[in-house]
Amino acid sequence: MTRMSAFDSPLLLGFDHVERMLDRVAKASNDGYPPYNIEQTSEQGLRITLAVAGFTMDDLSVTVEDNQLVLRGKQVDDADGRVFFHRGIAARQFVKTFVLAEGIEVVDAVLESGLLNVDLERPVSDVRSRTIKIKQSASDSTPSRIVEHKTE
To answer: What is the CA radius of gyration of the chain?
Structure first.
């Protein structure tokens, strides 16, 4: 069975990578652990906050792989020799992945009071336009000139 996609339109050229990113996001969003917030901290700033109570700095890692922010947590189960009547706090590992838009930079990561704050910045982009010279016919062997303009 062939899957239909909004990106199958002949008017959307080169957007197949967007479809792959959406598939990755859909697969990664199934797990709700650990809980997290995403907030806007300034006009260009974002913050992802993960609730990682019980994790130390050595248990956590923050990496950027291609265009993905990957947050990992792995605790060592130190229950050897301990007897629990109830164990509601598990030594659970996690991998949380966020797909980053082109140009977004990870600025900082801070662990404070059981919360991991990862600050991101979205750079201001310049609006660019191009004019493509139209040739008279195929016999005109002069290459097209592309003129770039920066608009502010």
So the answer is: 24
Query: DSSP letter string over 82-108?
Result: ---S---S----EEEEEEPPTT-EEEE
Is this model's pTM higher than 0.70 or not?
Answer: no
Number of structural domains the chain divides into:
1
pLDDT in tens, 6-15: 666 666 677 7
The residue-averaged pLDDT of 14-41 equals: 76
CB within 8 A of 6, min separation 6: which ones? 12
Domain range for 23: 10-126
In a domain, 146, yes or no: no
Residue 131 covered by a domain:
no
Q: Which whole-number Å values give the CA distances from 46 to 37, 43, 78, 123, 133, in the listed order?
A: 10, 8, 35, 11, 41
Contact 144/130 with Cβ under 8 angstroms? no
Using DSSP bridges, classify how beta strands 45-51 and 115-121 pair: parallel, antiparallel or unpaired: antiparallel
Nearest of 72, 51, 53, 49 to residue 61 by alpha carbon:
72
CATH number at residue 36: 2.60.40.790
Alpha-helical segments (H) within the chain:
16-28
